[in-house]
């Protein structure tokens, strides 16, 4: 897509385009250039979950920098994130920059909030199950609210903490792009790129990870009428994508994201293209 020209074909032709592009980009070759490669390096569910949360948190900006900084973050945890978390190794983290505006103090705050979740439930999935996340109409936002509650409680008294660097706090309006992307990795189960290690949420319940490129492409295709890349737009866009594939609407993240990259004259070959929303 380019120059913001609106798609002029029929709805059937639009579905054919999206299906074709999703098939093209939802392929094993996608993995090595995407942050999803990092949780895929692990076998235990807690490790996969923790890395999914952290990798998606910093998945914005230059692709090479993102991957280098995820490597740096995992090296700080000796490539054993769950053990590092439960040993509270994060409290020994030296002050440093992790990725752009995400610092060691932000990583420390995030892991501090996750500690009681893993200590009491063993995995984020079981925490989500206990909180009824899978029964919610908006599971990503329900999960974010539950995690945010733990983040707030565990970080009381730490004045250097900005919890919005971990997860958005404005859940009524945020597109929650980063957590929706992590959930795509954890929930979608076609065995190609995404890992499908969760059953507490079904693929049909997922919402599109909405960023600038996905938003712009969706408007060009007539899938999104609103200008803001916010929660209401996520709901509108996902509802339309569910018409094409009710059981797996977020398969089209591959099509919309990749069409956005191809069509943007401002995105270089090394740009991940997923802005921080």
What can be said about this structure in brief?
The protein has 277 residues and is mainly α. The protein has helices spanning 11-25, 45-57, 63-76, 81-86, 104-121, 124-130, 139-154, 177-187, 212-220, 231-244, 252-263; strands spanning 97-99, 102-103. 49% of the residues lie in helices and 2% in strands.
Describe the structure.
The structure is a single chain. About 3% of the residues have low confidence. The chain is built from eleven helices and two strands; from the N terminus they run H-H-H-H-E-E-H-H-H-H-H-H-H. With 277 residues, the protein is mainly α. A two-stranded antiparallel ribbon has the order 1-2. Helices cover 49% and strands 2% of the residues. It has one domain.
List strands and helices in order, with pairings:
Layout lengths: L10 H15 L19 H13 L5 H14 L4 H6 L10 E3 L2 E2 H18 L2 H7 L8 H16 L22 H11 L24 H9 L10 H14 L7 H12 L14
Antiparallel strand pairs: 1-2
Helix pairs in contact: 1-11, 2-8, 5-6, 5-7, 9-11
Query: What spatial form do the alpha-carbon principal axes imply?
Result: globular
| Count of helical regions | 11
Provide the spatial order of strands within the biggest beta sheet.
Answer: 1-2
Report low-confidence residues grouped into runs of 5 or more. 264-270
Which class of secondary structure composition applies to the elements?
A: mainly alpha
Q: How much helicity do the residues have?
A: 40-55%
Give the tally of β-strands. 2
> What number of domains?
1
> What's the oligomerization state?
single chain
Average pLDDT for all residues: 92
Query: How much is the radius of gyration in Å?
Result: 18 Å
The amount of beta strand, in percent, is: under 5%
- Give the ordered list of helices and strands: HHHHEEHHHHHHH
N-end to C-end Cα span: 22 Å
Major sheet: size, sense and barrel closure?
A: 2 strands, antiparallel
């Amino acid at each position: 897509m380019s120059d913001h020209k609106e798609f002029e074909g029929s709805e059937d032709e639009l579905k054919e385009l999206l299906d074709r592009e999703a098939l093209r980009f939802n392929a094993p070759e996608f993995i090595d250039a995407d942050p999803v490669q990092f949780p895929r390096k692990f076998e235990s569910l807690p490790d996969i979950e923790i890395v999914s949360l952290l990798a998606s948190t910093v998945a914005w900006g230059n692709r090479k920098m993102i991957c280098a900084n995820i490597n740096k973050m995992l090296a700080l945890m000796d490539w054993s994130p769950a053990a590092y978390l439960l040993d509270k190794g994060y409290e020994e983290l030296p002050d440093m920059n992790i990725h752009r505006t995400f610092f060691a103090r932000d990583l420390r705050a995030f892991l501090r909030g996750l500690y009681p979740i893993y200590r009491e439930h063993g995995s984020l999935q079981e925490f989500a199950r206990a909180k009824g996340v899978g029964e919610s109409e908006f599971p990503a936002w329900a999960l974010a609210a539950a995690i945010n509650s733990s983040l707030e409680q565990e970080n009381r008294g730490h004045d250097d903490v900005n919890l919005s660097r971990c997860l958005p706090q404005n859940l009524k309006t945020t597109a929650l792009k980063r957590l929706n992307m992590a959930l795509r990795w954890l929930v979608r189960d076609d065995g190609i790129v995404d890992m499908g290690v969760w059953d507490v949420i079904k693929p049909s319940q997922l919402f599109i990870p909405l960023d600038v490129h996905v938003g712009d492409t969706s408007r060009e295709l007539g899938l999104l009428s609103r200008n803001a890349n916010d929660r209401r737009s996520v709901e509108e866009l996902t509802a339309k994508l569910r018409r094409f594939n009710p059981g797996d609407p977020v398969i089209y993240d591959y099509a919309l994201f990749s069409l956005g990259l191809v069509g943007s004259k401002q995105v270089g070959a090394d740009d991940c293209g997923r802005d921080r929303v």
